[in-house]
Amino acid sequence: MKRMRLLVAVLIAWLFFFYNIERLSRFVDITAVTYTFVPAMAIVTVLTPGLRRIPAWVHVIAPIPVFLIVETLLKDELWGAYLALTVTEVCAIVLTTILARKVSMGISEFESAVANITIGQIDNPPGPFSAGQGEIYRQVRRARDHQRPLTLMALRVEEESIQVALDRMVQEAQQAMMKQYVLSGVTKTICNELEDYNIIAKRNDHFLILLPEVTPDRLPDLTRQLRKAVSEQVGVTLQVGTASLPENAITFEGLVEKAEEKMAAEPKSFLRPQWPTAQRMPPSALSE
User: Fold this and answer.
1) Same domain, 102 and 157
2) Are 158 and 237 in contact (CB under 8 A)?
């Protein structure tokens, strides 16, 4: 953000200087075409994101022939005694285009950061609890009616470990935004570690994960897998609570209550988690 503020300030200062250059030197007589062309290039560059995709040298050089053609058509002198003025005007256009391009790229980086902070960066983000409740309820009823194993897991990120992660992120961002960034990273990691048929929903400040066909004896390994993946890839610590059908409850509401109760009662770890590395966790062992 500081860099973008600086670029905007430099662009404004340059335009202020350019429009007062004739007051500083009586030998400079900027043409009306240049006075129109310079702000036009700044406006077009900032308001046209697609220009950032073309090479910088093309973006900077392409306006010059257009400027010279327009000057010639309007019968303005370009060469001879006016060559120094023409070079000055061309340099002004080039400098303005470069500064405006840098400002445009800074805006693009900011937009990209905002997009990454939101949960929209995930291909299949979990829906809110109200949206996934119906499907979770049907799965609980199916498992109960057909005597099949099923487990509901309540999971949330420890507030203390979120603060640890924030210490390594962009310090200028607001804590609320960065918390969403961490939670979206946790969501993405969980989605990658679990199977496609698992159902993930976000409820208040935690997640509910439905694990069809998962028996209680498989939960310790699965919990360790999720803790390790989230710690290595996001840098936060998880609190986990589970409830299995029919061992802990036989209704949807009972499973949710039991899993959340165990999650809240789990002792918090104050150990500093590993900061995310480039290593990827092994493929999920759920299918074994």
Assistant:
1) no
2) yes
Q: State residue 81's pLDDT score.
A: 63
| pTM of the predicted protein model | 0.42
Cβ atoms within 10 Å, residue 20? 9
Q: Which of helix, strand or coil describes residue 128?
A: strand
In a shared domain, residues 175 and 87: no
Distance CA 284, CA 194 (A): 6
Averaged pLDDT, 118-129? 59
Q: CA angle, 192 as apex, 160 and 240 as ends, to 5°? A: 40
How many CB atoms are closer than 10 A to CB 182?
22
Q: Does 230 reside within a domain? A: yes
Sequence-separated (6 or more) residues with CB below 8 Å from residue 124: 191
Residue 140 contacts residue 248 (beta carbons within 8 Å): no
Q: What is the CATH number of the domain that holds 248?
A: 3.30.70.270
**Is 282 within the bounds of a domain?**
no
DSSP letters of 144-176?
Answer: HHTT--EEEEEEEE-HHHHHHHHTTS-TTS-HH
Handedness of CA 48, 49, 53, 56 (dihedral sign): positive
Q: Are residues 165 and 52 part of one domain?
A: no
92 and 133 fall within a common domain: no
C-alpha atoms less than 13 angstroms from C-alpha of 96 in its C-beta half-sphere: 27
**Strand pairing of 150-157 and 238-245?**
antiparallel
For residues 256 and 135, state if they share a domain: yes
For the chain, percent of residues with pLDDT exceeding 70: 76
The whole-angstrom distance between residue 38's C-alpha and the CA centroid of its chain comes to 33
Q: Is 239 strand, coil or helix?
A: strand
